[in-house]
Amino acid sequence: MALxxxxxxxxxxxxxxxxxxxxxxxxxxxxxxxxxxxxLPSEEDTVRLYKDNxxxxxxxxxxxxxxxxxxxxxxxxxxxxxxxxxxESLQNPDAAKAWVQDNILNxxxxxxxxxxxxxxxxxxxxxSQYLNFVLPAMRNVHDAIVAGGLQDQIKVSTxxxxxxxxxxxxxxxxxxxxxxxxxxxxxxxxFLADNNSPLLANIYPFISYRDNAQENLQYALIxxxxxxxxxxxxxxxxxxxxxxxxxxxxxxxxxxxxxIKLVVSESGWPSxxxxxxxxxxxxxxxxxxxxxxxxxxxxxxxNIETFLxxxxxxxNKNGAESEKHFGLFNPDTRQPxxxxxxx
Length: 343
Known about the structure:
By secondary structure, the chain is α/β, with parallel strands linked by helices. Helices cover about 30% and strands about 15% of the residues. The radius of gyration is 19 Å and the shape is globular. The N and C termini lie close together (about 10 Å).
């Protein structure tokens, strides 16, 4: 694998070995490994499928040791989540040290990239019970990683989503976190800035299209369209993915995070189960997304580090029927649902 930004490399300079970060070329596409299904391949078969298809990055939503064992020596880089239900326990620094020891330090031959401390915590829904736990848990996990000497290799963050954005977010330069989320996000953004860490963001044009009957399908599918939204500085938006991502960039900037990078920690399109969900649309979205993220957005040109959601359909997921049909591969046959090139 090419050396990538935030990945520790070693160079020889004046006879001294120094740890550095390097970025070469386009970032590889990652794929989220959701395990909320009853018919999923084994962890070993799943990792083999990643390797066979040239998928070099994975997001794992729970530190499942069977999956971590299967990843040993694979060179697959990993986003590892601290599930929301574990956040309260990590208010205790000793518990955070134990979590890092059990799930990271004991797996030195796994390439951890980011730790996502909480996912889509929102002050206005059921996840609000975790609101006060996210930042202390982030700090404690970060401190444990520093104590383990891995702070140059592993960055601590949290995963947010468009639900925290306020209603007046068009054009994207107007993007801001909703009032109820600003007090939650401001210190998190300061933590990320202080530690040169990215913010993870789940970006779903599908959800915007599904919930807005006036939304243009081609605009949502990152398919060729005319300019739909014009913004300050001559920025023009021809697809919804760029608009949604730049809205988050604007919101982060307004809370003091002008130098913070966004990593798209989830983006996908379902093959059935809802308005606009079809195999054809999903194939179009995933293919266009893989091609598009090599060039960046109008606000932030350059490669966008992106994780597709998800590896498999997950038949045990709750919520809308479409939630069960985001998979890129059929879990029973392990055959691809779409013809995609992940490089």
